[in-house]
């Protein structure tokens, strides 16, 4: 996956579609960041919300959102089985096609080593509707394998 191409694609999707619906979001109001394979997940910056993605072998596995009060959901939630039932870790462990790659003891490290992230950091002043809009755009565009 070409990192800059994906960042540009996400950026243009947000700019174009927000303009199309008559509520333009500007480049100063959001930033797309990349967390590469082998990443140590970043903390959610103060005053920001996020739409996050997890990508494995060019397939989007998960697209989700975290508001400014959901720092754990953004930074650590999806790497661990016990965080919640709707984590990436749990989805991977339940997937028979992934059973030869992941197990309870290696799941956290496997995600960090094998999945990259493309995250949209959004000015929290834009609010929940904007967060939902951007999450919906990315879910529609990339059709993530695991949702819910």
Walkthrough of the structure:
With 148 residues, the chain is of the alpha+beta class. 36% of the residues lie in helices and 20% in strands. The protein has 5 helices and 4 strands, in the order αβββαααβα. The chain has helices at 3-20, 71-75, 88-94, 107-114, 127-142; strands at residues 30-35, 48-56, 59-66, 117-123. The longest helix is centred in the first third of the chain and has 18 residues, at 3-20. The chain starts with a helix and ends in a 6-residue tail after the last helix. The mean pLDDT is 93.
Cα shape: globular
Structural class: alpha+beta
SS summary, helix count? 5
Q: Kindly report the spatial arrangement of strands forming the biggest sheet.
A: 1-4-2-3
DSSP strand (E) fraction?
Answer: 15-25%
Q: What proportion of the residues is helical, as a percent range?
A: 25-40%
Q: Separation of termini?
A: 25 Å
Mean pLDDT figure = 93
Q: Which sequence of SSEs, written as H and E, runs from N to C? A: HEEEHHHEH
Low-confidence stretches: none
Largest sheet: 4 strands, antiparallel
Tell me the Rg in angstroms.
Answer: 15 Å
